[in-house]
Structure formats: C-alpha cells, structure tokens
From TrEMBL:
PROSITE patterns: HTH_LUXR_1, HTH_LUXR_2, HTH_MERR_2
Protein name, entry field: MerR family regulatory protein
Species assigned in the record: Agromyces cerinus subsp. cerinus
Gene3D superfamilies per record: 1.10.1660.10, 3.30.450.40, Winged helix-like DNA-binding domain superfamily/Winged helix DNA-binding domain (1.10.10.10)
Domain HTH luxR-type: 457-522
Segments passing through the bilayer: none
Location of the HTH merR-type domain: 7-53
GO molecular function terms listed in the Swiss-Prot or TrEMBL record: DNA binding
Keywords tagged on the record: DNA-binding, Transcription, Transcription regulation
Keyword DNA-binding: yes
GO biological process: regulation of DNA-templated transcription
C-alpha cells in the first residue's frame, strides 16, 4: 500500500497546528516533510502525528526552535543536548546566522515608523543573506483582482512598468499567490513565455517566490531573483517564508493606515462639498426671493401709483428684497455644537475631565466657516485625547484680527512624555485656513493653539453691500450715526440697521473692532 502524503494545508487541519507553525518547525528541523521537485511540502502520516505531539508537549521552548535552532531530529538526538554541544558544525553556524538575521529584521520592523522603508530594509537584508541580486514585494488588490508591485530592488523601472499589475493566477507569482505554496525555478529563461524579452533584458535566471499571509488571508508575494542559474535551496525558501511571516503584519498595518487616512480625507471632501452646495442653494433662494419681491413691487407701483398705502407696501417689499439679498449663508450656534458633539463625547469615550472655556467668540458663524472650524476642532480633540492624561480643556477666543482654537491637556502628576504633532488631516485643514499652529509644554499641562487670520475667516469684500461699505468707511472717518444719516439722507434707525448687519457679517461686537478687521477693505469694494 502506498504511503499517504498530504499538503501543508491538509496537515494543518488534521494536526490542529497553524500553517505558519508547521513551516517554522520544518525550518528549525523539528519536522521533516518531503518536498516535490517544485519545492512543495508533502507531509506523511508520521509527520502529522509528530506535529500533534509537538503541539501538545512543546510550550516555552517552541519559540526558540521556530527562530532557527536546527536539530537533527531524524537521528533521534536530544535537541537541547545537541544545542549545548561544545563544538559547532557548519550547519549550526549557518543556523545561528539565520537567527541573527531574523532578530535584526524583527528589531528594525518594530523600531521603524516608516512601514515601506522598514519592509525594504528587511527584504534587502534577506536578499543579501541568500545571495539574491534583485527582489520584489507585490501586494494583492482584492477590489481590482490583481497583484501590484509594492517595493523592488535591483530591477529596472522599465521592467516594473512592463510587468505592471497582473491578474490573479497569472504567471509564476500568480500561481504562488493562488496555490499558497512557494516555488523555486532554477532558470527562468527557458520557462517564461509572457514577458520573456524583459526577463532576457534584465538577465534574470534563478527565481524563488513565497506567498504573504496574514492569518488565513492572502496578502501578496515575495519574489527573489539571481542573475546566474544557481537555484535557490530549500533552506532559502524556508528563510523566505519566515521573513515573509514577519513583514506581512507590518505591511497590512501600513495599508490600513493609508485606507483610514483616505477615508478621512474623503469624508472631509464630501462634507465641504455638502456645505458648499447648501450655501449655494441658500444664496439662489435668496436671490430668487428678492427678484420676486421686486416684481411684486413694480406691479404695485404701476397699478396704484397715487395710492399712499400701495406706496408704503412697495417700500416695505423693497426693504425685504434688500434684506434677503444681504442675508449671509445659514448660521448656527457653534458653541452648542462643540458642547454636545465634542466635549461630551471626548469625556465619555476617553474618561477625561473635558471642559470648554470661551472668552470672546462670535455669536453666529456661517455654515462654511463653522464646518471647517468644527472639522479642525474634532480632529485636534480626538488626537489630543488619545495622548492626554487627566484633563482636556478646549479654549475658544477671538480678537479683531484673529480667531483662536486652543487645547490644554496633560496630567496633574507631571508633563507628558511625548509632544503632540497634528495628523495629516488636521494639518491639511490648518493649511487651508492659512492658520498658525503652536505647541507648548509645561510642568503640569501642555497646550496647542491654532490661530486663524480674520481676513481668511471671512473676507469683508465678499460680505458687505455697497451701502454697508460706505457706512463703514464713514465710521472710519469718525462720523457719528446722526452725521452718517445726514450724509446718506437716511434715518438714524437705518444707519443702526446697517451697523448691526456689518457687525454680524464681520463677527465683531462694536465699531472699533469692525474698523480694525476691515482696515482699508471698504475702499477696495468701490
């Protein structure tokens, strides 16, 4: 009766041992499955049974074995006794070097903040160790059903462009990805058909490829090339798989961060588009209302030109038309929004003492401005709360020339260890507002402040009507309300109405602040 051999996937199911652990035990010598000519593992019934026993018996020592302490299990020698032998064979020295490589790769992956460069360094060290001349890491795009190059070395730009993204299951790399098993080809040139000219031009000969896994999910492939027909050994494939298992979680983490960042930016874009559309719709409605009021006024004036009551109604309708045109985009209470949507949520989710301090803040903000300030404040509050201890205080303040959003945070026991740096999303909003960002650290509390110029917040030239600009110019000349009324032949009440509208549009509370904010802008409107 022929002995039964199974693939690594079947062996994992029958033994209850994960695939990655079977590979690690094979690399360390604790398991000795057979290999096909293409490098695929085949496990016998004895191998499966031994895997079960290893899983049951080996606990603390297994991690050391998996990192590369190879033992001659087939001879029945004692693993720990062999490791303690005084003399070291060439195989043991090579195993120690492999362990050193894995330790170096692990340390660099953990210490680096740049996933792509850390992966590149790790694979480059591996390539140098096994004598590869070029390498490539390619990742699967599940949405488009294709494999795309993530990082390369030793391959020309023309080669990577020509190869480009390729469909799943296409080529040797596609087969490795689909079958979830490594492959080794002694010489590519007699084998490859698609892209043969590029392979010849690059001088690529020996080839090895292993799949990248994260749990049970396929992530991509890791390819190694030599420019000589010296085939990669089984030991090289084992090491490739071990490094692949180390780099894959970091690659996946980096991709998740990119996806989250893209989603955040998309959210901001959609929110701004919605606000813009809402403001434009409101403006069109106001213009339409004003036009209809003027039409009614003209009809009344034409039919009852001599009627005093008709003239009064016409005058009132004219005033309503002017007021509808002068209305700003919809305003809402920014402070109420901050209290309900930011303060309460941060306090509950992060278990912090979160409070709001308001010094001088405009009573109403336009939808366009408030949306940008709200997005910025939410982003800053979330990021600060993640590193703060004990408390977060949100500060809102304004002056004639600036609006300020600040956050105080820290701990009552001492300063925070890590300074805060705004994320890419928060930085984009800060740049869009042409704002200045400052961060300070104190003995018990740190703070960040975003200072936004008022001429960026709401440019007066986009807000004031011609008569309001003239009224503001008269204020700058030092005229009183009565003198302004006499100059423009209007009532003092109308002057006061103009001033109220000016203060609201410029988000100030008195004439001196209005003059400071506008400066010479009124002259630019004429």
């Amino acid at each position: 009766m022929n002995p039964r051999f199974v693939t690594i996937g079947v062996a994992a199911r029958e033994s209850g041992v994960p695939i990655w652990r079977l590979r690690a035990w094979d690399a360390s010598g604790l398991l000795t499955p057979s290999r096909t000519p293409s490098g695929y593992r085949l496990f016998s019934a004895a191998d499966v049974e031994r895997a079960r026993r290893l899983a049951a018996e080996i606990d603390g020592a297994e991690r050391l074995h998996a990192l590369g302490l190879a033992y001659d299990v087939a001879t029945g020698g004692d693993p720990m006794g062999a490791a303690a032998a005084a003399s070291r064979s060439d195989a043991e020295i090579r195993t120690s070097e492999r362990y050193g490589l894995l330790r170096q790769v692990t340390h660099h992956l953990r210490a680096s903040d740049d996933t792509r460069s850390a992966v590149g360094f790790s694979v480059a060290q591996l390539a140098q160790f096994i004598g590869a001349d070029a390498w490539s890491v390619a990742l699967a795009d599940q949405l488009r059903q294709r494999i795309e190059v993530y990082s390369t070395f030793g391959l020309s730009e023309r080669f990577t462009d020509e190869v480009g993204p390729w469909p799943f299951r296409q080529g040797l790399g596609g087969q490795v990805y689909a079958l979830r098993e490594p492959i080794s080809v002694p010489d590519l040139q007699p084998v490859v058909r698609a892209g043969r000219e590029m392979v010849l031009a690059e001088g690529l000969r020996a080839y090895a490829c292993v799949p990248l896994f994260h749990g049970s999910a396929r992530v991509g492939i890791l390819e190694m090339y030599r420019r000589t027909p010296d085939p990669f050994e089984l030991e090289d494939l084992d090491l490739l798989e071990m490094v692949a298992s180390l780099i894959t979680p970091y690659i996946e983490s980096g991709r998740l961060v990119q996806q989250v960042t893209a989603l955040q930016q998309e959210r901001v874009h959609h929110f701004r588009t919605l606000v813009s559309q809402f403001s434009a719709a409101g403006r069109r409605q106001r213009e339409q209302l004003a036009a209809e009021l003027r039409t009614i006024t003209a009809e009344l004036s034409a039919t009852d030109a001599g009627s005093g009551s008709a003239g009064s109604i016409a005058a009132r309708l004219t005033g309503l038309a002017q007021e509808s045109e002068q209305l700003r985009s919809t305003e809402f209470d920014f402070l109420e929004l901050v209290n309900t949507s930011v303060i309460d949520r941060i306090a509950q989710e992060h278990v912090l003492n979160c409070s709001l301090e308001v010094r001088r803040w405009p009573a109403g903000l336009s939808t366009s401005l408030a949306s940008r300030l709200y997005l910025l404040l939410v982003r800053l509050a979330e990021e600060i709360a993640a590193i703060a201890e004990d408390h977060v205080v949100i500060r809102l303040d304004s002056s004639p020339d600036r609006i300020q959003i600040g956050l105080d945070y820290g701990t009552t026991d001492g300063p925070l260890k890590d300074p805060y740096h705004p994320s890419a999303e928060a930085g984009t909003i800060i740049d869009d507002l042409d704002a200045a960002f400052t961060a300070e650290r104190g003995p018990a509390s740190s703070s960040v402040t975003v200072s936004i110029p008022r001429d960026v917040v709401d440019h007066p030239g986009e807000l004031l009507t011609q008569r309001e600009a003239e009224t503001l110019e008269a204020l700058r000349s030092g005229l009183t309300n009565r003198e302004i009324a006499a100059r423009f032949e209007i009532s003092a009440k109308t002057v006061q109405n103009h001033l109220t509208s000016i203060y609201r549009k410029l988000q100030v509370s008195n004439r001196s602040e209005a003059i400071s904010v506008v400066g010479d802008a009124a002259a630019e409107l004429r």
